[in-house]
Design goal:
It is a single chain. This protein has ten helices and nine strands. It is α+β, with helices and mostly antiparallel strands and 296 residues long.
């Protein structure tokens, strides 16, 4: 089987629009713009139409009246962004799809547009100058961005959904959901993401079943104080995706502190349209650990 590998840059988290390589757009024009470019604009508009409907009908969030007002305004802005069709283009990486927070001509991704229009151009400038090509999973731990998302009534999952996706990017969205659910000890969400025969292979050679993993996550004496995932790479051979990463975390378990720095491999299986489940994980310590039990 032929495998595709996509190496993601290291950083923190937010939502950026993916731009196709310029070579993909270099086709004979059939109108004012090349066909590939017009098709890509149409694809992105269809994506934002779908996101618009989901955001408007979402009832899961517990929001304050202020958050609801700002959220409704942002949804309207997102529709205006969709209609304008001024999406960022990849003018630097001709060999691969790459996210751009702000491209060389000043075009903004959807999230950068929303942030700037809300009055936080300083935040847009900072991300564009320091993490312009970062992926959503790599911007997750930026405190200022997380505060902004909360202030406008958007969840991390919704922010991830705003980002247009390709198959490998869909996998990244589920990795983000999994990490977020694990870090919040949301056993229901983690359970939905774990395949029925999920297994976790520990750095000490042990194996934990799905039930054992969920039991550890819900145990009162398991506390995760800090966790982050970086150095992410996705290899795809539909319907299977293998995600390699570096996971760093610390906390306590059974009264003992642990501090892990691990190289991890996850195997994801596509179970439906825009649906993936985690089949297995295998983590190996990069530096000596003090963990009494397998951590995420």
């Amino acid at each position: 089987m032929r495998w595709q590998s996509l190496i993601l840059t290291t950083a923190g988290m937010l939502v950026v629009a993916l731009a196709l390589p310029r070579g993909v757009r270099a086709v004979a024009p059939t109108g004012p713009e090349p066909l590939a470019q017009r098709l890509e604009v149409a694809r992105l508009r269809a994506h934002f139409d779908s996101v618009d409907a989901e955001l408007r009908h979402s009832k899961a969030l517990q929001l304050t009246p202020s958050q609801r007002r700002v959220r409704a305004t942002l949804i309207g802005w997102l529709q205006e962004y969709r209609d304008a069709g001024e999406f960022p283009r990849n003018d630097r990486f001709p060999d691969r799809a790459m996210p751009f927070f702000r491209d060389g001509h000043g075009a903004l991704c959807a999230m950068a547009y929303l942030i700037e229009r809300s009055g936080r151009r300083d935040l847009v400038d900072r991300v564009a100058s320091t993490r312009n090509n970062a992926f959503i999973a790599e911007l997750a731990n930026d405190p200022e961005l997380r505060v902004w998302l909360d202030s406008v009534g958007l969840s991390v999952t919704e922010a991830a959904r705003i980002q247009p996706t390709y198959a490998w990017q869909e996998v990244m969205t589920f990795v983000v959901q999994y990490d977020s659910a694990w870090n919040q000890r949301d056993t229901s969400a983690v359970s939905r993401l774990l395949a029925p025969r999920y297994q976790y292979f520990t750095s000490r050679g042990g194996v934990s079943s799905r039930a054992e993993t969920l039991a550890m996550l819900s145990a009162p004496d398991y506390r995760l104080e800090q966790a982050s995932r970086s150095e992410i790479a996705v290899s795809l051979s539909s319907p299977v995706a293998v995600v390699s990463s570096r996971w760093v975390g610390r906390g306590t378990y059974r009264g003992q502190p642990f501090k892990d720095d691990q190289r991890c491999s996850q195997t994801w299986l596509q179970t439906g349209r825009m649906m993936w489940q985690l089949v297995s994980e295998h983590c190996v310590q990069i530096t000596p650990a003090t963990s009494p039990a397998p951590s995420n």
